[in-house]
Design a protein that fits this description.
single chain, 250 residues, alpha+beta, five-stranded mixed sheet, globular
Length: 250
């Protein structure tokens, strides 16, 4: 009896952990690397950097679908997890579990060199991420064109509230820029990277979240306005500081 009970307990614990892990969050729009919509899906696409040797940047995955945007276009970022049966349907049905870890801070960034450098084009705090909302961010109107989809990347990075983990997921993109002005350039704000052992960082940093276990309240209206009105563009108000991500170091 004790052996049977112990085995059942182990199975229940394993099942619970699997369910929790599959409820972690990744990008579905733009369709990002290693998702179920790609030629090279991965079971750990939703996991944090460092999980089972998962590498920074982007997780070390192969190239995914390529989405073309125009400078100045707004990307309605969407999130997804393995509990969502149809990732193309938005919003998902009510009651889908998601491991938001009490929310946290999300940054959305661009790279034109395959992930060696990143410049921030959007930030949301406390309530991000959440699979039930769109998180709009604007590609700056004056960002240069980027035609090499092997090097042009859009990413979501997330520092959670209840755990010292850093998530980074990327999509291959192309940016078209009809304006050939000499004033075109990438934003000044660099992406924040914490809790990455690969980079010899201590895993000791978390964000101030909304502390909600399930569905949150979605994007803050003021942050949404900043993210869609040129605040992060070169010459915009973000500069090298941006929004206060409210990170806490233990």
């Amino acid at each position: 009896m004790k052996v049977a009970t112990f085995s059942s307990s182990i199975l229940l614990t394993a099942s619970t952990l699997l369910s929790m892990a599959s409820a972690h969050i990744a990008i579905s729009n733009p369709p990002a690397q290693a998702g179920p919509w790609t030629k090279n899906p991965s079971d750990d696409v939703h996991a944090w950097i460092g999980f089972n040797g998962k590498k920074f940047p982007c997780g070390g995955y192969k190239k995914g679908p390529v989405t073309t945007y125009k400078a100045g276009e707004i990307i309605p970022v969407r999130f997804w997890n393995f509990q969502v049966k149809n990732p193309k349907k938005f919003p998902p049905p009510g009651g889908v579990p998601q491991s938001r870890h009490g929310g946290g801070a999300c940054e959305f960034s661009l790279s034109n060199d395959g992930g060696k450098t990143w410049r921030v084009i959007g930030q949301y705090t406390k309530s991000c991420p959440d699979i039930y909302y769109e998180w709009p961010v604007q590609i700056p109107h004056n960002v240069p064109a980027c035609s090499d989809s092997n090097k042009c990347l859009f990413s979501m990075s997330w520092t959670a509230f209840s755990t010292d983990q850093f998530y980074h997921h990327c999509a291959n993109i192309i940016i078209e820029q009809p304006n050939t002005s000499d004033k075109n350039g990438y934003p000044e704000l660099k992406m924040t990277v914490v809790d990455v052992k690969q980079l010899h960082q201590k895993m000791n940093t978390h964000a101030v979240g909304d502390k909600k276990k399930g569905k949150g309240t979605g994007p803050d209206p003021h942050e949404k306005q900043l993210n869609t009105n040129g605040f992060f563009a070169l010459g915009g108000g973000a500069g090298t500081k941006g929004i206060n991500l409210q990170l806490v170091v233990r």
